[in-house]
Amino acid sequence: MLLDPGMDLTLRPMRYPSFYERYRDAIKNTWTVEEVDFSIDVNDLNRKMSESDRHLIHRLVAFFATGDSIVANNLVLNLYKHLNAPEARMYLSRQLFEEALHVQFYLTLLDTYIPDIKEREEAFAAIETIPSIKMKGDFMFKWMNSISDLDECRTRDERQQFLLNMICFASCIEGLFFFGAFAYVYYLRSRGLLPGLATGTNWVFRDESGHMAFAFEAVETIQREEPELFDDNLKSQILDMLDEAIECECQFAEDVLSHGVIGLSLDDMREYLQFIANQRLQMLGMPKRYEANNPFPFMEMQDVQELANFFERRVSAYQTGISGDISFDAAF
Predict the structure, then answer these.
(1) Structural domain span for residue 120
(2) Of the N and C termini of the chain, which has fewer Cβ atoms inside 10 Å?
(3) Residue 328, pLDDT above cutoff 80
(4) Is residue 108 part of a domain?
């Protein structure tokens, strides 16, 4: 089973071919930070944006400065050693590359948006010095450290501990904290601002969607193999975890919007977070928890055209042709 202790090294016969397909699909969709043009963004920041807009952006990039690094650390320290399938670890190795790419993107973003070195240092220290960002950081570290001493998933409690960590990072951190941040970016895009940030975020958005899809498929696989793990106590902890994540993100929203941003409100942000939290619960096979709809029309058709353009431009440049037949159940 997927959580059985050990380090299976053999890809034949392949037990989880869909994980391998996710790895191959991710490889086809490679982008680089150098493709992002920030030249218009600098003009927008200096000439077109209000002080409240700039406060929003400074808080956003301060969170981005360390968010993906924490996700990468959890992946290496916790997820990789407990998913005992080589095809799953192949996908995680690709995800680690993508997290590094996101870190590079946000580093470039900070260097471009905040030319003053002292201000830039303050942004990198925000996870310790800005209360709304520290609250999110503390939440992430709490769940990352929850299984830091877990060497093997042998008992029911140990396996449930691991599941809570994986579900937290998929549904609360990548699936809620980052998606809340993306909403601010796409709100600014709807006003015709910061096209470079929007372009890079489109690709990060696509990567994060793939990370969540893999994690939720892994959870579904574990549920199929060991349904007894998914008891009422585990489900109750997942709901508490989501409630806490929403409160963290709402505290961040209160800070981000504290100077007043036309077209965004704390109430709408809370409803949007509850709306996407319902989606995460449904991906876990659990019923909706919140009475919420999407209050942001600019998120309704997110990325349809951009993703189409991505595949048009990049498949021929990045996809390596594969010939011959592949059999997933063949022995050596």
Answers:
(1) 50-304
(2) C
(3) no
(4) yes
Q: So which residues are the catalytic ones?
A: 106
The total number of structural domains in the chain stands at: 1
Residue 29 falls within a domain, yes or no? Answer: no
The string of pLDDT tens digits covering residues 37-46 is 999 999 999 9
Provide the token pair at 324. Answer: 């011959």
Name the least confident of 77-81, 159-163, 321-325: 321-325
The pTM (predicted TM-score) of the whole model is 0.89
4-20 pLDDT, tens per residue?
Answer: 998 888 898 999 999 99
The residues, any chain, with a CB within 8 Å of residue 55's CB and separated by 6 or more, are 256, 258, 259
Check which CATH number belongs to the domain holding 212 and give it.
Answer: 1.10.620.20
Mean pLDDT of the chain: 90
139 within a domain of the structure (yes/no): yes
Residue showing tokens 């609250």: 135
How far apart CA 211 and CA 102 sit, in angstroms, is 13
DSSP codes of every residue in 82-145:
H---HHHHHHHHHHHHHHHHHHHHHHHHHHHH---HHHHHHHHTHHHHSHHHHHHHHHHHHHHH
In a domain, 79, yes or no: yes
Do 26 and 208 contact (CB within 8 A), yes or no? Answer: no
